[in-house]
Amino acid sequence: MNREQMIDKVKAEMPERRWLHTQGVMETAVLLAERFGEDPVRAELAAILHDVAKYWPTERMESIIREKGLPSELLLYDKELWHAPVGAWIAEHEYGVTDADVLNAIRYHTSGRREMTKLEKIVCLADYMEPGRDFPGVETIRELSGHHLDKALLAGFNSTISFLLEKGKRIFPLTIEARNALLE
Ligand code: DGI
Ligand code: FE
Ligand code: FE
Ligand code: FE
């Protein structure tokens, strides 16, 4: 599947506003890849696909998690987390992506994990700071991203963790591990 075909197929999976977000993540991931010495083509590919499962019905995500052997502990945490590992599965099996680093950048774009690759960090950070994002602290993240990939991403995880604490929600262990690893 070429880039244009992939874009058309992903676009058809989501409402217009989510496609606008995806385009923002694509542009931002390319910029960050150029800034921090990663491959912009692979960064863009992961960005195109990162939210492909975002609007799948819960039951459809749940059956992929159960039937394809994805980590079942995901089911104990917020449904918002599920589209990332499910998206990686779809990228591999429906879009023919074989690059493990690209697949992991999709898989971990929501939670992060410890020892993230540069590509994983870039996609996760681009998702936080694309031009359409507007949440308290996003400007600080954008400023840090001018020079510091890890500090900017840490600020992103801090903001997610604060948000989850405020809402009284569970925090997925990988998110805590991702934050701790950036402080080491
Ligand atoms: O899919 P997007 O909206 O572009 O962004 P995302 O994939 O980073 O999803 C973020 C949502 O996931 C946000 O509403 C917070 C929610 N979430 C729920 N539990 C957790 C979590 N995010 C992280 N990182 N860790 C959690 O434990
Ligand atoms: Fe997402
Ligand atoms: Fe994110
Ligand atoms: Fe996203």
UniProtKB/TrEMBL annotation:
The keyword Chaperone does not apply. GO terms for molecular function: bis(5'-nucleosyl)-tetraphosphatase (symmetrical) activity; metal ion binding; nucleotide binding. Keywords: Hydrolase, Iron, Metal-binding, Nucleotide-binding. InterPro entries: Diverse_Catalytic_Enzymes (IPR051094), HD/PDEase_dom (IPR003607), HD_domain (IPR006674), YqeK (IPR005249). The keyword Disulfide bond does not apply. SUPFAM superfamilies: HD-domain/PDEase-like. It is an enzyme of class 3 (hydrolase). Residues 18-132 form the HD domain. Its EC number is 3.6.1.41. Pfam families: HD. It catalyses: P(1),P(4)-bis(5'-adenosyl) tetraphosphate + H2O = 2 ADP + 2 H(+). This is bis(5'-nucleosyl)-tetraphosphatase (symmetrical).
